[in-house]
Amino acid sequence: MKSLAIYCVNYNSNTELKQFLLSVSEAVALVANEMSISVFVADNSDLPQPLSASDYPSFQYVHFATGGNLGYLGAVQKCMKEYSPHGFDYVIISNVDLLISTDCFARLLQLDLNNQVGWIAPQIYSTQEARDKNPKIMNRYTKRALQILNIMYRYPWLFKLYERTLYKRKQIASESYAEGTPIYAGHGSFMIFTRSFFDAIGPLDYPVFLFCEEIYLAELCRKHHLQVCYFPSIRVMDSEHCSTGKIHSKFYYRYNEEATHYILQTFYK
Question: Which structural domains are found in the chain, ordered by start?
Fold first, then answer.
């Protein structure tokens, strides 16, 4: 029997969390005899309100209060120190403002993967943007491109000018990609990792509060010669009710500047 661990991050969003867990329950029903599933809720909420594990008899439910808002990977990392991802065949890191398709786990089991695949990027359909958010990044950023981004985040008026001009000219890609297409990085709202990923990489250690998580994880895959592959047959619906788009602009720019600076200093020397 295969095993799957889901580490999902909650921040004052129990309504969305309940809907997410319901979608997990429905997906578990199709693989009840083939996959054991554990869900670890890394709860950054101001006043955590644990749900009842008895409401989710089809999988192991664990509530983990982080003790404060540690950000996205910060919450996951603290939870993983207590509940290790090692030994699971698959590990999912996700937000809670999304729903997985009923056949999500069944399709995951059907994948024929080699040991070099470390990260499976599913189809993440955004209801706000009416498009698939994957593939997130097809090719690795150049050092110059990241340096320019870092400068724009440091001086927000430059970023706003970019958004009003060059960014508006970009077309949302409508190209279709085959199952298993290699990419640089998937979207961070729902990421599936294989056993090969954590066997090779060990504990995650991303010290940044928010943003650039995808680049950090993609660089770890690159360092350890693991592939990131896009599989649109695995489907997730992203409602983005708890998205970082609601963060105050001052913090949005500051956290992005810190994140791009860290990526440059760590992986682009």
Answer: 2-139+179-241 (3.90.550.60)
